[in-house]
Structure formats: C-alpha cells, structure tokens
C-alpha cells in the first residue's frame, strides 16, 4: 500500500544507497548496418544533452580489450550510465516506503492475497478490497500490478461483476548466467549487442508471430549482454521465450548464451561450461510480455477506481526477474532518466497485487 510520494526515487541523492555501478554502458555492433544505427542513436542522445559518443573498433579495444567485433565493429558509449543492483534497490525502496507508515500513508500486507472487490451497490465502483484477513477501503483507485499474472488476476477479481476485460499479457521466460572467480578477462562496462534492442535476433515463424513486430516470441531468442555485479561476478545474458509459466533451467539455452557471448569474447572459447559447474549460477525468471512490446498502464473503461498495470514481479530469492541487465529494476539509465519507478515488489512473493490509496 503506497502513498503518492513513494512512486519515484531521485537517484541524484540516493545512488550510494541503491548500490549502483557507475561504469557506463555500451551498445555494440558488428556490422556496418549496426554501426549506422548506433551512430544515429548517439546523435539523438547528444542532441538531447546527454553524454554519448560513438567508438570505433580501435577505440573499443582500449575500453574493452577482450571484446572482438571484427573490422566493421563499433559501439555507442554512454559513459554516465549506471547499473542498479535489483535486489538491493528493492530493499532500499521498501525501506523508503516504510518511512511513510507513521503518517498512515503506507502499509504492507504481504502473503495476504486479495480475494475480491467490494463494489458500491449504487455505482458499481470499487469501494474496498477484501483480502484473506481484512478489508481495505479505497479512497481513489485500485492499481492491479501483478506482472505476467495480471490477466488471470483481473479475470478472477472482476468475474463476479459480469465485466470482461482483455489483458493479453504473457509471461516471457529468460535466463541469466552468472560466473564467479572467472579470471580470463575483466569487463569494464555494461555491454549489450545492438540486436537486443532491435529484436533482430528473434526468429520468424509463419504460424505464431506477433502481428505488430513480426517476431515469434515462442522461439528462444538469444542476444549478448554482459556486465559485472557488485561482488565482481560476470553476468551473461540473455534469452527471451514465451513458454507459459515454466521457470525450469534449460541447459540448452544456457549453452546458447555461452556460445553467443563467445562470439564477442573469443577468450571464452578456451573454457567449457562443464568445467565451471561449481562456479556458476543460472537465474531464471518471468517478465510480462505484451503484443507489440508496449506496456499496459491504463484505467479500465467505465471504472474510475480501477487501474490495470503490468509490471515485472520477482518470484522468490533464487529466481530473480530476468532483466536482464537493461530492463526494469536492473535497467541502465542515462542522465536524463535518473528516476527509478518504484515497483511494489518483494523478492519472496510469488505474485504481487498492489492496492494504492492515492492522495
């Protein structure tokens, strides 16, 4: 339960608390076409007053000696970008939210699922939210923010009112590979291949495609992302696929992530994942996916007190939302974006549903 002032946190005053890594970030390309797109991106960022520059292959070798992009390679470098540690950021946001509890503007009801809405007999509007243990009155609005579970949550809660609302959000599964004490090379910045942003690595299908993007989200798409966490571990990603709510580790996907990373860092080809079972961790999680790739943040038509919002939720402490490094809580942001939109998340929740008393 949140008040209005807990929706954002200004990183200009809280960077240390949120445990950021201020190493800058790079979008890297291996072809002339990639670099043309990256140059245009840099120009737009510079025009907007943000720190950005295009690095040639030779300039990249100085910044990232282990990175190999070929003769046509280059990168868009954002030196002022910061990376957030998702778990510590959530802990910080929870602590900040709790400071409003004394004013009656914040309360937590974890592990207390919502069972129904209580509606006005005269208007049909939502007057309260019934949980398994209590009734919470609604002052202005109810925000449904259950990530990839939003569709089923909405269906279950409004079924009794005879209302039909289509929330086509789907769970999109992703893997991250984390390596500890990996000595062959050091990574100096957060890296991502240009194809991750453009979705160029997604495979086409004639039977199961997103009508707006043309890409088949059910086939695993692998794009290279690489960064280090606060403890110095290497984090490689990433995969994207729609296979329902399955969160089991798929070793074939992990191998593909490693193979893709090896194409950018040839030194990795000298090592085998099979020899690193005791020094590796694989994180698997789900993110909400909407057809067309755009989020759903909107009031439900005909209901002034009900707002549907899809958001990434963390399932438990061993399976973190897949990010990977450039999304939601782990997203690297430029100077002009340094406000973190605080999701009502808790790492040990399977599903989250936030009911907000807006003032």
From TrEMBL:
Keywords for this protein: Oxidoreductase
Q: Name one GO cellular component term.
A: cytoplasm
Q: Which GO terms describe its molecular function?
A: oxidoreductase activity
Q: Which Pfam families match?
A: DAO
Where does the FAD dependent oxidoreductase domain lie?
23-299
Q: Does the keyword Oxidoreductase apply?
A: yes
What does the function comment of this entry state? Answer: Required for the assembly of the mitochondrial membrane respiratory chain NADH dehydrogenase (Complex I). Involved in mid-late stages of complex I assembly.
Please give the name of this protein: FAD-dependent oxidoreductase domain-containing protein 1
What organism is the protein native to? Striga hermonthica (Purple witchweed)
């Amino acid at each position: 339960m949140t008040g209005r002032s807990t929706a954002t946190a200004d990183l200009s005053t809280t960077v240390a608390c949120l445990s950021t890594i201020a190493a800058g970030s790079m979008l890297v390309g291996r072809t002339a076409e990639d670099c043309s797109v990256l140059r245009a991106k840099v120009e737009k960022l510079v025009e907007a007053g943000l720190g950005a520059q295009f690095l040639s292959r030779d300039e990249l070798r100085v910044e990232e000696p282990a990175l190999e992009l070929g003769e046509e390679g280059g990168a868009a470098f954002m030196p002022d970008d910061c990376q957030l540690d998702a778990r510590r950021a959530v802990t910080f946001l929870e602590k900040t939210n709790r400071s409003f509890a004394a004013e009656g503007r914040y309360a937590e009801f974890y592990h207390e699922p919502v069972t129904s809405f209580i509606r006005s007999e005269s208007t049909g509007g939502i007057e309260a939210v019934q949980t398994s243990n209590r009734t919470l009155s609604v002052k202005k609005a109810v925000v449904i923010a259950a990530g990839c579970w939003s569709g089923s949550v909405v269906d279950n809660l409004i079924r009794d009112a005879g209302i039909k609302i289509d929330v086509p959000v789907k769970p999109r599964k992703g893997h991250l590979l984390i390596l500890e004490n990996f000595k062959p090379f050091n990574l100096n910045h957060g890296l991502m291949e240009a194809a991750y942003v453009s979705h160029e690595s997604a495979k086409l299908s004639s039977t199961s495609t997103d009508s707006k993007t043309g890409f088949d989200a059910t086939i695993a798409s692998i794009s290279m992302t690489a960064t280090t966490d606060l403890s110095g571990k290497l984090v490689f990603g990433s995969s994207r696929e729609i296979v329902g709510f399955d969160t089991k580790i798929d070793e074939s996907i992990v191998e593909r992530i490693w193979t893709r990373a090896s194409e950018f860092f040839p030194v990795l080809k000298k090592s085998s994942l099979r020899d690193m079972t005791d020094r590796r961790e694989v994180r698997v999680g789900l993110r909400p996916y909407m057809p067309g790739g755009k989020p759903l943040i909107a009031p439900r038509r005909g209901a002034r007190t009900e707002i549907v919002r899809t958001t990434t939720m963390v399932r438990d402490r061993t399976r973190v939302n897949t990010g990977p490094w450039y999304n939601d809580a782990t997203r690297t942001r430029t100077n002009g974006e340094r406000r973190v939109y605080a999701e009502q998340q808790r790492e040990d929740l399977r599903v989250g549903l936030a009911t907000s008393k807006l003032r």
